[in-house]
Amino acid sequence: MDVLKTKLAEVLPLFRSKRARLLEQYGDTIVANVTVEQIIGGMRSVPSVLCDTSSVSPSEGLRIRGIPILQLTEATPEEIFFLLATGERPTDEERHALSRLLTSNPNVPQHVLTLLEAMCPTAHPMAMLSAALLAMEHQSAFRRAYEDGIAKDRLWEYALDDCITLLSGITGIAAAIYRLKFRDGLLIEPDPSLDWSTNFARMLGISSDSRWADLVRLYLVLHADHEGGNVSAFTGITVASALSDPFYAISAALNGLAGPLHGLANQECLAFILDVRQRFGGVPSNEQLRQLCWDRLHSGQVIPGYGHAVLRVTDPRFTAFYNFAEKYGLDDECITIAKRLYQVVPEVLREHGKAKNPFPNVDAISGSLLYDFGMTEFTFYTVMFGVSRAIGICAQILFHRMVGSPIVRPKSVTLDELEQMAHRVTAVQSTQ
Ligand code: CMX
Questions:
Q1: CA-CA-CA-CA torsion for 376, 254, 60, 44, nearest 10 degrees?
Q2: What is the rounded CA–CA span in Å between residue 235 and residue 392?
Q3: Would you say the CB of residue 266 lies under 6 angstroms from ligand 1?
Q4: How far apart are alpha carbons 303 and 261 in whole angstroms?
Q5: Least crowded by CB within 10 Å, which of 167, 280, 304, 428?
Q6: How far apart are CA 370 and CA 376, in angstroms?
Q7: How many CB atoms lie within 10 A of CB 26?
Q8: Ligand 1 within 6 A of CB of 357
Q9: Nearest C-alpha to atom 47 of ligand 1 is from which residue?
Q10: C-alpha–C-alpha distance, residues 192 and 187, integer Å
């Protein structure tokens, strides 16, 4: 039995009893009200999704299993996956064992490579990543277990097998997409002596600078999870709730991540920064930037990398990347523009008065760092995000299979039904 399975089997009774106790004691308790605006507005702030792996508060941002992300910036992605899935930090021995598991299968299967090579040259790298994961689905231990009639309360073990297969394969696939699409098409052999993220950094073939490997490590740590209500996580856990296996679920989740208001924002953000650089022939002054932001807002465009559906402060993941740039003295033009935007945009957005959160999210700087090390093909950035986010969504899927969550099925309402519901409530209130 592998290291993670052992630990999960140990914490399983705790997860299940916590959930059962909550249901038994408070099953009927009303904990929230929903307004018409929230239903029309994408269920914003409605507490309706169970997610134990991480939480995001408006005033502080991401915590992984209760630990603020800024306290985890030295961790490895393996450590984060272990923490997300089990609720505990691994010992060194556990971390190494998990690392061995996740680096056990980095070679891209030939049929996946053939598929990637056959895709249209204009295919977006995210479409390639999503398709490649679907092409790995035939390996699903979960699907076989379900077909073999394995008891529902043991399906998590097979979901875990799939998660390990998927995560150990996704770095090689992502690197292959990069090499095929943007470089000479030759894949770089993995080195089994390296850990998961260092191997990924190596297979991308961008740089042998150890700071590059450190950036890839940090990138995979910071993007791994952001609770359960964001588009990619919610999609992933919804698909998995139908007992579709993790390959289907993560592929679907990545399709959501590919949207410009979600994961694609890092691509958009760098495009914006490059546009600024080109327009001014280098780094503009704060005043020039301020004017440019206003022009953008007046023409109805958003400022990429700023605002957030939940956060109301600077995203701590932005701070972590900012600190990384400071630590290594990175000051190329894109990074400098990203830093200047931080001095200018919050004030502009506040004055503009629309965005509820004028502060930067993680995407405001992440791309500039990748660019500085030579990963200049920014349509690939969301793939980097996706490799990382697969960690968190796998952990969330595992949790739901462990505690036996049912199929996700919120009730939808028509506009007329919603109006009638609102009428009824206001009528009752007016008689009170
Ligand atoms: N620039 C300009 N206007 C903005 C803005 C920004 N950065 N952020 C929000 N607004 C506007 C919204 O478009 C909205 O305008 P309308 O009322 O005309 O539709 C208004 O302010 C209110 O929006 P909000 O409630 O503050 O924000 P939402 O929860 O609706 O949306 C987000 C959140 C992230 C989609 C939005 O802030 C945005 O588009 N930001 C730029 C894109 C971006 O950085 N996305 C990455 C998010 C991180 C992630 O999920 O990965």
A1: 130
A2: 13
A3: no
A4: 11
A5: 428
A6: 7
A7: 10
A8: yes
A9: 262
A10: 15
The residue type found at 161 is D
- The residue whose CB lies within 8 Å of the most ligand 1 atoms, and thus the one to mutate among 46, 230, 272, 302, is 302
- Tens of pLDDT along 297-353? 999 999 999 999 889 999 999 999 999 999 999 989 999 999 999 999 999 999 999
Burial class (CB in 10 A: 0-12, 13-18, 19+), 67: middle
Q: Is 302 in the pocket of ligand 1 (CB under 6 A)?
A: yes
Q: 296 CA distance to ligand 1 centroid (A)? A: 14
State which ligand 1 atom lies nearest to the alpha carbon of 354: 21
The whole-number pLDDT of residue 265 equals 84
Distances (CA, A) of 188 to 93, 229, 278: 28, 36, 33
Q: Report the interhelical angle of 363-372 vs 381-403 (nearest 10°).
A: 130
State the Cα–Cα distance between residues 206 and 178, nearest whole angstrom: 10
The residue whose two tokens read 């001014």 is: 280
Alpha helices in 136-209 (DSSP H): 141-147, 155-182, 196-204
pTM over 0.90: yes
Distance CA 380, CA 363 (A): 13
Nearest Cα residue to 311 out of 382, 230, 236: 230
- Contact 298 CB / ligand 1 (< 6 Å): no
265: which 2 tokens? 């924002």
User: Given the structure tokens 């001095």, which residue do they identify?
Assistant: 343
**Cβ atoms of residues 250 and 230 within 8 Å:** no
Cα separation, 298 vs 26, in Å, equals 49
Q: Residue 355 Cα, ligand 1 centroid: separation in angstroms?
A: 6
Cα separations (Å) of 221 from 321, 387, 413? 11, 10, 38
